[in-house]
Amino acid sequence: MKYAVFTEDGYDYIDSSYKVFSGGKEHTYLFDYASKDISALPDLLDAFVNKNLGKKTFDLKGYKYAKEDGAQIEEILLGLHPYYVENVQEVIKRALGEMFISRLEIAGKTRENKTWFINRFTGIASLYLNCGDEYPLQLHEEYRHKFRADHPNDWEVLYFRSCSRAFNSELYEHELINRLLYWVLDTSAPYLSNLTIAQRMWLFGNIYPGYSYDFNIEANFTPAQYYHLDREYCDDKDEETNPMYEHANKMHDIFIPIHPYLELYESGGDLTPEAEAALNKAILHAQSVRDKPIYEKHEIKKIGHLLIPEVLQMIRNETKIKKCTRCNRYFVYSNKNSKFCERVWEDGNRCKDVGSSESFQDKLKSDPVLRCYRNVARRFRRWSNSGKIDPAQYENWYAIANKELELVRSGKLSFKEFKDWLDKYKFE
Ligand SMILES: [Zn+2]
Asked: In this predicted model, what pLDDT tens digit does every residue of 273-287 receive, in sequence order?
């Protein structure tokens, strides 16, 4: 089972019992994910399927798929988020299943038999199926279930049509995450700066009511509470058996005995020995859990199960984000004047370092006063370093020059006067 453990600092993504990766307070994986363009996925998958399946005839062409056929799709997914490192095969397999069914629906082939169905699906998905894979059978069941009767309601037809994009789930979640970040958290989003986070969330929920399936926006949002997920609470990471029931039983045993005495206790009355014992038991338990943070465990069946709680957590924390002026990806900031992120790129440079020196270079180009001053200052610093002038003299000049520069900035000295001063300055 794949699941994520959410803590105050972020989450750990766990496959069986191995931690695969962690998402931290910087949310770098999330922001990288949001910045990527995945719009090519449907066409790539379409071309992939067409290699072996006649678009109208549904005849197999006898094409033998090789690893390279899926390389571009895999590259996009693997570059998107570490989640896909473990799940790329599964995600593509399911996207092929969705696409196959939607093609059958469009062609009106809603009554094909099992052998026909599995034969063709295996023909297009062989590269991503394991030996003895149950998925083709499951998919056929889904197909049968979906077309068991002609859709009695128009909305059902509409619903299925809207799902007919290939990689529907990948595109849907990518769009949702980007919208959530923008509408609710991005402090540079225009028109929204006077709203509180809660107001922005409300606004977002009303603009996109369709997302209410993923979380209930109008209620006070505690992510897991509104998830269509199996959710488990536990206070011990190593619990082998079903932790939800065990935990519920444990809590029941601890807290139910206190109930009859609550009113007495709250009104400050004297407790009976039984009441005292029950209360002490609960207090003892509370002390034992103090050092173990309570964490939430969510089963992860698709990427949205991982990223939506992450964004909701950010919303609850009122995390401030904006886009980096240099790489155009989101980053978390605390100083509202920050323009660049702290991302370290492959060349070892950080946007923050490169970006501010780049913008200084830009400023130099457009500011003749600063350029002129800098040229002279450089020359004097060289002289000071090589001993041609006394370093103390240079320091002295530097202080005066900065004052002169301020005079120019405030309009009390003209550029020409400043330039003349710079040219004529002599060291004694
Ligand atoms: Zn950046």
From this structure: 888 888 777 776 665
Model confidence, pTM? 0.62
User: 346 CA to middle of ligand 1, Å?
Assistant: 13
Q: How far is the CA of 313 from the centre of ligand 1 (A)?
A: 23
CA of 350 to the centre of ligand 1 (A): 7
SS (H, E, C) the chain: CEEEEEECCEEEEEECCEEEEEECCCCHHHHHHHHCCCCCHHHHHHHHHHCCECCCCCCECCCCCCHHHHHHHHHHHHHHCCHHHHHHHHHHHHHHHHHHHHHHHHCCCCCCCHHHHHHHHHHHHHHHCCCCCCHHHHHHHHHHHHCCCCCCCHHHHHHHHHCCCCCHHHHHHHHHHHHHHHHHHECCCCCCCCCCHHHHHHHHHHHCHHHHHCCCCCCCCCHHHHCCCCEEEECCCCCCCCHHHHHHHHHHHHHHHHHHHHHHHHCCCCCCHHHHHHHHHHHHHHHHHCCCCCEEEEECCCHHHHHHHHHHHHHHHCCCEEECCCCCCEEECCCCCCCCCCCECCCCCEHHHHHHHHHHHHHHHHCHHHHHHHHHHHHHHHHHHHCCCCHHHHHHHHHHHHHHHHHHHCCCCCHHHHHHHHHHCCCC
Could you tell me the pLDDT band of residue 55, with boundaries at 50, 70 and 90? confident
Q: How far is the CA of 345 from the centre of ligand 1 (A)?
A: 9
Compute the distance from residue 325 Cα to the ligand 1 centre, in Å.
7
Average pLDDT over residues 259-279: 77
Cα(259) to centroid of ligand 1, in Å?
A: 55
Q: Where are the domains of the chain?
A: 39-166, 240-291, 321-360, 367-424
Q: How far is the CA of 331 from the centre of ligand 1 (A)?
A: 8
